[in-house]
Amino acid sequence: MKKRLLIVLLSVCIAIISAFAFIACGETNSDGGNGGNGDGGNSGITATTPETPDGGDSDGGDNQTPSGEVTPEAPATEGLAYELLGDDTYKVTGYTGTETEVNIPSMYNDKKVTAIGAAAFNERKDITSVTIGKNVTEIGEEAFYKCNGMTSVTIPDGLTSIGDYAFQNCSKLTSITLPAGATNLGEGAFRDCSGLTSTTLPSGVTRVANSLFYYCSGLKSVTLPDTVTAIEMSAFSGCTALESIAIPSGVTSIGTYAFYHCEKLTEIALPSVLTTIGNKAFGYCKGLTSVVIPKSVTSVGEYIFEYCNYSLTINCECKKADATGWNKNWNAGSSGYTLKVVWEYVA
């Protein structure tokens, strides 16, 4: 009798344990059957805008690390306006949002975002940083004009063109890293970026455009590639902190006011292929004590060294008789004085 009772009790215990195990399995399946969490199947990662791709392809918004891991691109900032272009890609044309850190996406509506339009962020002084998606190849003119609260901008490797005055008066930018393909830099693209301290232009740039670094008063050093052949009007005018610059050996022309008011520039070597020096190109370069003008120079504008140090000596490799294309006031100063000239100079 006792043995039978013990068997019954064991059977009841086994039944109860089995029931609990079945219930537990049922709960696990109801949580995980649609994707692995308790929200009925959602992944737990939601896009802030429906246009942001869920990523992973070569043209999408995700980035791959060297180890092969995919890092999702930050979601697009709300308030961006887009325009569909003829090549079936999008251009960002404006911003009405309130976020101060702006993320411009690589994709919108499953199509590439390839451009930032003219004046798209014009005078948005509240913006502090901008990250530009990897498919963007062009930044339009005045795109970030007077965004003087912006302290950083991340430019993608595929960028090729920056329009006229695109970053003018972004006075809090201290550095800008340009990718290798960014060879088309418009007039005044970084004009009045007074916080900029140094920069390197990528190989392939052929001209330092008009007013490119005009009154970048904090700029101390610039590295120019060997591909540069022209330094245009006012390119470095007002760069009062500029201490050194190596002019590439292939430069043939230096424009009007090119280095005007570069007061801390103590020396400058002019290349042997230089042919043209524009009006007042080195005016107010008070740190210069001597300059050599190569015999290749055939055209010199007026007052090219005005307001320079009275003791500046100009060494000319050519004969005075050969300087027929030189303005008669080329070496005149601000008060009628003329600077010392040594003709037929040999180093």
Report on this structure:
The chain is mostly beta strands and 347 residues long. The chain folds into two domains: 73-189, Leucine-rich repeat, LRR (right-handed beta-alpha superhelix), CATH 3.80.10.10; 197-347, Alpha-Beta Horseshoe (Leucine-rich repeat, LRR (right-handed beta-alpha superhelix)), CATH 3.80.10.10. The chain contains one helix and 23 strands. It has one helix at residues 2-32; strands spanning 63-64, 70-71, 80-84, 90-95, 101-104, 107-108, 111-116, 129-132, 138-139, 152-154, 161-162, 184-185, 198-200, 207-208, 221-223, 230-231, 244-245, 253-254, 276-277, 290-293, 299-300, 313-316, 340-342. The strands form six sheets. Strands 3, 4, 6, 7, 9, 11 and 12 form a seven-stranded mixed beta sheet that branches. The longest helix has 31 residues, at 2-32. The protein is elongated. The model is unreliable at 5-10 and 19-58 (pLDDT under 50).
Largest sheet report: 7 strands, mixed
The helical percent reads under 10%
Please identify which CATH superfamily of the largest domain we are dealing with: Ribonuclease Inhibitor
CATH topology of the largest domain: Leucine-rich repeat, LRR (right-handed beta-alpha superhelix)
Overall SS class = mainly beta
The backbone outline, from C-alpha atoms, is elongated
Work out the strand percent: 15-25%
Q: How many strand segments?
A: 23
Rg, Cα atoms, Å: 32 Å
User: How many individual domains?
Assistant: 2
Mean pLDDT over the residues: 86
Can you give keywords for this protein?
Leucine-rich repeat, LRR (right-handed beta-alpha superhelix); elongated; mainly beta; 1 helix; 7-stranded mixed sheet
